[in-house]
Fold this protein.
Amino acid sequence: MGHFENVNKIKYEGPDSTNPFAFKFYNPKEKINGKTMEEYLRFGVAYWHTFTADGSDPFGSGTMLRTWDKFKGMDLAKARVEAAFEFFEKLGVPYFCFHDVDIAPEGSTLKESNQNLDIIVAMIKDYMKDSKVKLLWNTANNFTNPRFVHGAASSSNADVFAYSAAKVKKQLEIGKELGGENYVFWGGREGYETLLNTDLKLEQDNLGRFFHMAVDYAKEIGFDAQFLIEPKPKEPTTHQYDYDVATAHAFLQSYGLQDYFKFNIEANHATLAGHTFEHELRYARVNGMLGSVDANQGDPLLGWDTDEFPTDLYSTTLAMYEIIKNGGLGSGGLNFDAKVRRGSFEQDDLFHAHIAGMDAFAIGYKVANQLVEDKVLDSIVEDRYSSYRSGIGKDIVEGKADFKKLEDHALGLTDIANISGRLERIKATINQYLLRAYTM
Ligand code: XLS
Ligand code: CA
Ligand code: CA
């Protein structure tokens, strides 16, 4: 008995299809620049939102109707694995991601939790072998349990620091066991509420120590996954230490960790930080730190972490633009850290949501690729900064200018002529490329 019996393998049917269980734009075998969409986009399903979450929010209980919910405890965990692999295969995604607590229930002791994990990990390993679905990344949930009330590696309580380390240690071992390609650190409660009771310096130093221990342990066991920090400015803490890419990058540099990490950038976290998704991607890219993406979107009217499935084509286009310019995501991928709305409680909605997200990124990919090929933005930027390719501008970028030389130059200027930024014309061009996508 399957969990999604009424759904067959999702296929590409093209932009005119009216079949809700078909891709309209994501064509896994279609080649762009010599790579299939499947190879390039590296989609992943987030275990927590899709198989573990029940749709509850701070004002109401769960709404999701799931075939696996008739089970309890370890039986529930096993049923979720069966459902998950049926889902991955029918959807045709190459990757998945999980936290420890998503896949196996916590026991009353750490030892018991680890034993539960071992049983489920062995089962997942078998399913992975049969299905060819791979682990994009795993992580430790060091934020839900009450013991993490004051943080994990940045907790005021050294026992909690130790417990957090033990959980990450176990996840590094599991990552190795399952061939995980990346390992994510999202500092769920690594931050503070008020300075009135907080030793900010000690907390940050401890966080630095914690990351070094993780790097050392991964080396020791020969786990060579890419380590990723996932920045988020707030929620659940008021002041999160890994606020955004720039903040986390400075942190990594301060603690000598910059060579061991890249970033996992989530769209909704970018907007929570007051940035665009593409700003965070660009900042990471130009610093050589773009690792992976949590593909979702926020609701600008709500302003909190709503983790919606990505459907905004403008945003997927500008995100894919950064990814193409980065030469792809390397070992990273596009993980749908996204949840169906509380009102979308039927099991089939999980397919509709992922199909919507995959189609939105496929369109974004095609449009962005065309923008890159036609050098649309490149030539705009090249023109705009042309003053740095000759004369005094060339001297500035080549380090041949100082304040005295610049003053001489400025004194000789009679007229300073700026040129228009032409934002409206650029936006109209992007719209033109977007609307042409249908015929591409
Ligand atoms: C929460 C985060 C979390 C990380 C993994 O806001 O997005 O789900 O991706 O711990
Ligand atoms: Ca995330
Ligand atoms: Ca989120």
Residues 29 and 36 are 5 Å apart (CA to CA). The chain is about 45% helix and 10% strand. The mean pLDDT is 97. The longest strand covers residues 134-139.
